[in-house]
Write a structure and sequence with these properties.
about 400 residues, single chain, binds magnesium ion, binds NADP nicotinamide-adenine-dinucleotide phosphate, alpha/beta, two-stranded antiparallel sheet, Isopropylmalate Dehydrogenase
Amino acid sequence: MAKIPMLKPIVEIDGDEMTRILWRWIKETLICPFVDLKTEYYDLSLPHREETGDQVTIDAGKGILRHQVGVKCGTITPNTPRMEEYHLTQLWKSPNATIRALLGGTVFREPILVPCIKPVIPTWVKPITIARHAYGDIYEGVEYRVPTAGTAALVFTDTRGKTRQEKICDFEGPGVLQSIHNKDSSICAFAHACFRYALDKQQDLWFAAKDTISKQYDQTFKGIFQQTFESTYQDSFRASGITYRYTLIDDAIARAVRSAGGFVWACKNYDGDVLSDMVSGVFGSLGMMTSVLVSPAGNYEYEAAHGTVTRHYYRHLQGEETSTNPTATIFAWTGALRKRGDLDRTEPLIAFAHALEQASLEVIASGRMTQDLAGLCTGIRPVILSSRGFIQAIRLQLERLLEGGSAGGIG
Ligand code: NAP
Ligand code: MG
């Protein structure tokens, strides 16, 4: 069979540990035999980030700005033990934070559903996508320990030198202080990204915060979302039969657990960090959670939501066959290839991405799966495969679909 051509490259960002191993197997077995793969390759493994003084991370981000589409492997965010393990000269920043800072935008995390894998919340029959604002709040916060008694104040100096000062607290003794910020421009871009994504997915959009307590900060988010909705999206939402609603975050959580799923949930940075792990936990496994960073300029970076699966990697290094789930990483590749196909109008590439997803889901639905899914499987007796065995099973299923021309989108 002739390989499927690509008109333009995608940016390929390689990473660390077990996900780096899966990355190679996925490419060798599931992609390169079928697609004439064009990528601009960046090696973001920790040793190479160290070697380049982390310049390679910046170059990779700029690569996405040039080519619009990237796919990223899991990478280590170093902490002190990693500094010794990898003989680092400094604690390099999280690559995801560096790339997000370059691209801006919003991270959307969506679970991959398979009928035989039952969510812990049985009513969740449709996916819930968490849209996490990727700027500001505690992630760009300033904080310190207050050593002794004293007064803390919040001070703002405008460009003409005029200041405004509000007392925060009179400390009678030691304590702790934190300041956080956000920008209207970033919140506005976040709101647009969420409304567009909901329209794209044809799903309701929820936004939740705590404006009853945070009468300036969270109220600003709520107001910008409402204005953006009314000025730009109200009519298209109505025409699509989908809705936008603002809810208090505690109320949203109570409603979400009783819902059937099937909506996009816009969250402030910290809420999205926490809730995306809750949502992936309920839906089953981190190995089934995809993630895409969508920038306001229309750039896309696809990845799995999980990390480098260190525990499995150490077992792999000892010669053990691990049963690490490659599904989210496969879907990162299909997401990027499909987007490349959409942008370049290359139908065969889009059809291939569909076929590879379909093959992966059909293998799991047939009961052949990795260890993490086996305990969640109902209605069928699971056969636990190694990562390699699972990828090989997908390869055979993919060949069948491509030969039969019966894959979704092909024909
Ligand atoms: P992790 O790599 O997501 O793994 C945590 C645990 O979740 C694993 O030990 C495993 O549980 C389970 N798991 C995750 N993905 C799985 C998969 N595909 N298949 C089967 N099980 C899976 O998180 P971590 O151990 O906290 O972090 C490891 C490294 O990844 C750290 O250096 C961190 O900095 C980095 N990280 C990177 C990213 C990113 O690049 N986007 C995100 C998060 C973390 P069991 O061991 O119980 O099987
Ligand atoms: Mg988190």
